[in-house]
């Protein structure tokens, strides 16, 4: 408790200093609210915008859904990229404080950006949630989006939940839409690195098709066999088009920390680019 209190005081002091800066980005949240993710908030968001464009072909006029949007790490760079007259962004998350902050910050300046609270049980961020992720229907119509983004989402979902989220992602994607998702993927290389103690995360029972770091809190970090992921994508009409390994497994040439998977939905024609 003492350590947490000291951390809070330090972050609030840094927030007070940040407020005095003339070049402060209004879409970068206070440090005390930056509760997930590794690395610099803005740099990480900018990195992923580059991945969306290069790996998933994101265009300014497209409709984007951000699953588990948090405090807006992905929303911030998209606000400067999506066409305010044609493109749109929707994000949902279990964290009410994060959603409230995003609604206030984006508001009138970015009327094509929308944020919703998902009343889902989450042991860490929303233990009083009314619904389970394995039963949650995304609050959008079929074929509503051109790109569905799930960064650091499947890495915290157990098997039934992950499969359901893949199904829901496919449901809300237009024909030619893409899913951009990050995973901890288990394959020959990552399993060997884990066994040798060279991976960034020491997954238990890594030979299985699903593995966790902690039996006490399994959703803290979840890894899936690459074949399981490919099979479930295919079952929901999603065809992988990109697979870029991450550095978490001890690889030196990873593109990002987590593994990146991009999958195409429908007839193979990218939405808006026929």
Structure, explained:
The protein is an alpha/beta fold. The chain has a single domain (40-265), classed as Vaccinia Virus protein VP39 (Rossmann fold), CATH 3.40.50. The chain is 30% helix and 20% strand. The protein has helices at residues 2-19, 41-56, 75-79, 96-106, 159-172, 188-195, 226-235; strands at residues 63-67, 88-93, 113-117, 145-150, 173-183, 185-186, 210-212, 222-225, 238-244, 259-265. The strands form two sheets. Strands 3-2-1-4-5-10-9 form a seven-stranded mixed beta sheet, sandwiched between helices. It has a three-stranded mixed beta sheet with strand order 6-8-7. Helix 3 (75-79) links the parallel strand 1 and strand 2 (88-93). The longest helix is centred in the N-terminal third of the chain and has 18 residues, at 2-19. The model is unreliable at 1-20 (pLDDT under 50).
């Amino acid at each position: 408790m003492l350590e947490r209190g000291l951390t809070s005081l330090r972050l609030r002091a840094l927030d007070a200093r940040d407020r005095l800066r003339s070049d402060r980005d209004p879409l970068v949240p206070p440090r005390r609210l930056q509760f997930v993710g590794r690395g610099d908030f803005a740099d990480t968001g900018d990195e992923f915008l580059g991945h969306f464009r290069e790996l998933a072909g994101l265009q300014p006029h497209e409709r984007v859904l951000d699953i588990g949007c948090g405090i807006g790490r992905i929303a911030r760079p998209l606000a400067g990229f999506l066409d305010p007259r044609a493109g749109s962004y929707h994000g949902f998350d279990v964290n009410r404080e994060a959603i409230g902050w995003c609604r206030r910050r984006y508001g009138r300046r970015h009327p094509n950006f929308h944020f919703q609270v998902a009343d889902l049980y989450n042991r860490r961020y929303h233990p009083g949630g009314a619904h389970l992720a394995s039963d949650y229907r995304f609050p959008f119509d079929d074929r509503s989006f051109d790109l569905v983004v799930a960064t650091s989402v499947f890495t915290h979902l157990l098997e039934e939940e992950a499969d359901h989220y893949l199904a829901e992602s496919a449901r809300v994607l237009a024909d030619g839409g893409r899913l951009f998702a990050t995973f901890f993927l288990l394959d020959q290389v990552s399993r060997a690195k884990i066994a040798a103690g060279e991976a960034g995360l020491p997954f238990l029972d890594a030979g299985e098709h699903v593995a966790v770091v902690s039996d006490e809190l399994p959703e803290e970090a979840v890894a899936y066999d690459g074949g399981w992921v490919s099979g479930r994508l295919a079952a929901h009409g999603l065809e992988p088009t990109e697979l870029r390994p991450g550095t978490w497994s001890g690889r030196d040439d990873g593109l990002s920390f987590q593994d990146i998977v991009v999958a195409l939905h429908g007839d193979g024609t990218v939405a808006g680019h026929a």
